[in-house]
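For reproducibility, we list the full input for the magnesium ion complex.
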Amino acid sequence: MAFFRTTKRDAPVEDDVFSGPLVSLRGVEKAFDIPSGKSYVLRRVSLDIAPGEFVTIMGPSGAGKSTLLSILGMFDGAWQGEYYLRNVAVHALANKDRLSLNRKHIGFVFQQYHLLDDLTVAENLDVPLSYRDVPRDQRAAIVADTLDRFQIVGKKDLYPRQLSGGQQQLVGVARAVIAKPGLLLADEPTGNLHSSQARDIMELFVTLNRQGTTIVQVTHSEENAQYGSRIVTVRDGWVVDDVRTGDGGRGTGVGG
Ligand SMILES: Nc1ncnc2c1ncn2[C@@H]1O[C@H](COP(=O)(O)OP(=O)(O)OP(=O)(O)O)[C@@H](O)[C@H]1O
Ligand SMILES: [Mg+2]
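The corresponding predicted structure, in tokenized form, follows.
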């Protein structure tokens, strides 16, 4: 029995329509200047992700997975190439427009959690709702419901430093999904969790994906990868493999 109850409210709300891929990368490159010259972290990455896909990015440590995800999440502006999200040319946007596109469409689980230190657990969960058009009187109810679903009600008034690593990770996942993003980007979302909690998170992702959320997760876990429907492998900054893996968890009757 998963520790999450999922509700109709989980379905993403997108108010405009578009056609074609949700995400399209063309020749994306990222390099750092180092004393001996340029150090490339991503090389000519071209990738299309259709609405409704559940993609897993795998590859060795240092391959560029987090770098790629943070470009998709628009947390990194220092790269070359083209990135279209819902047909919007992200590479041509001013920072403030990237930020508003991010806040409207994207939920992000950071590998290092990145909760806001000065806010309590409940306040951290409220942040994404405050960016959307969620009426203030509904926000508290949604936060309460999410705390309940993630079984962290008892932690709601604590600050991130008062939580264990795994608890911070759970709050990070809760924060990423609370505002029903159309695109969920998750960097090692279960790396610090017990295996049964990890399964619950993956089942939550499958449920969200069935309800229309497009997911891109980074993981070293073969087991987590099985929940998705496509595996993209990155090595030394290059996409070296891209395979479909069936219907992931969607045929198993999980969630709903
Ligand atoms: N400021 C920087 N200067 C130079 N190189 C950097 C800098 N930041 C990151 N890198 C390099 O970018 C590469 C890719 O890092 P990234 O975090 O994307 O790897 P990853 O695939 O997510 O690895 P992991 O599985 O360990 O999380 C690494 O080799 C790292 O050393
Ligand atoms: Mg990483």
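The pocket of adenosine-5'-triphosphate (ligand 1) is lined by residues 32, 34, 39, 41, 59, 61-67, 111 (CB under 6 Å). Residues 24 and 238 are 16 Å apart (CA to CA). Both points were considered when choosing residues for closer inspection.
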